[in-house]
Design a protein that fits this description.
6 helices; globular; binds magnesium ion; alpha/beta; Rossmann fold; binds guanosine-5'-triphosphate
Length: 216
């Protein structure tokens, strides 16, 4: 029996090299956006990193681009409060989103960015893929499901990324993977492969680079 939503664990050498080269190019911060009319012109492919607060979105962008603090990360959920645009190789935008769900910020501020986030995720024409990051220890939560449902409705392809795999206990892994696969199977916009990452250990980073290079 083949598993639905297998892990993407290997890539061919050509794709890996393509990804390595793309991410060896210059990456620069473009702007932080707080309202839809502040979004840059949709003149190139865009991919974004979504997920609950503290799941590791900004850290993953830093790992991919091999920079320590391109995207600001922190221990405090709610670090990223704007839609942050990064230009990679003058050919695509990497977008770091504020987290959804719990955040250590005032309620009215959080409500404002949640609204913007939803508008952005459902209405950005050049958004080619959303990486939905989920903590490998916790699996898919209700708020993740809501965002995935929104992406289903908007017909925006999303790919599930399990983060912080260095922290998962082996005895818990199978159960969590099963929960994740079960939940994903309910979403029509889910890309059929999952990627496991650890920014801490560099796991899944070359694969993610090549997946992004192949989207271009
Ligand atoms: P918000 O901007 O608040 O939505 O959070 P975020 O999703 O951008 O998370 P961020 O990258 O700021 O990381 C949150 C915390 O998790 C930081 O303390 C990181 O060092 C830690 N972290 C991120 N990735 C990993 C990982 O792969 N392994 C471990 N062990 N810790 C990680
Ligand atoms: Mg962040």
């Amino acid at each position: 029996m083949t598993i639905a939503f297998p892990f993407c664990e290997k890539m061919d050498d050509i794709s890996i090299e393509k990804g390595r080269r793309l991410f060896a190019s210059e990456c620069r911060f473009v702007k932080g956006v707080v309202a839809m009319d502040g979004l840059p012109k949709p003149d190139r492919v865009e991919i974004c990193f979504a997920g609950r607060s503290n799941v590791g979105k900004s850290t993953l962008i830093n790992s991919l681009t091999n920079r320590k603090a391109l995207a600001r990360s922190s221990n405090t959920p709610g670090r990223t409060q704007e839609i942050n645009y990064f230009d990679l190789a003058d050919s695509l935008y990497l977008v770091d989103l504020p987290g959804y769900g719990y955040a250590n910020a005032p309620i009215n501020v959080v409500a404002k960015w949640q609204k913007l986030l939803k508008k952005y995720l459902s209405g950005r024409q050049n958004l080619r893929r959303v990486f939905v990051l989920v903590d490998a220890r916790h699996g898919i939560k209700t708020v993740d499901n809501e965002i995935m449902a929104l992406l289903d409705t908007a017909a925006v392809t999303f790919q599930l990324i399990l983060t912080k795999s260095d922290k998962i206990k082996e005895k818990d892994a199978e159960k969590i993977f099963e929960q994740v696969r079960n939940r994903l199977s309910k979403h029509v916009a889910a890309y059929p492969e999952i990627i496991i990452t650890s920014s801490e250990r560099g796991i899944g980073i070359p694969i993610m680079r090549s997946v992004i290079a192949n989207i271009l």
